[in-house]
Amino acid sequence: FWDYGDGNTSTGDPHPTHNYGIAGNYTVILTVTDSENNTASDTTWTYINAPPSAPSINGPDSGKPNTEYDFTFNSIDIEEHDVKYIVYWGDNSWDETDYNLSGTDVEVSHSWPEKGYFACTVYAEDEYGAVGDGTDFNIMIKKSKSIKTKYQWLQNFLQSNPNLFLIIRHLLGL
Question: How confident is the model over 51-76, as a mean pLDDT?
Answer without folding.
Answer: 95
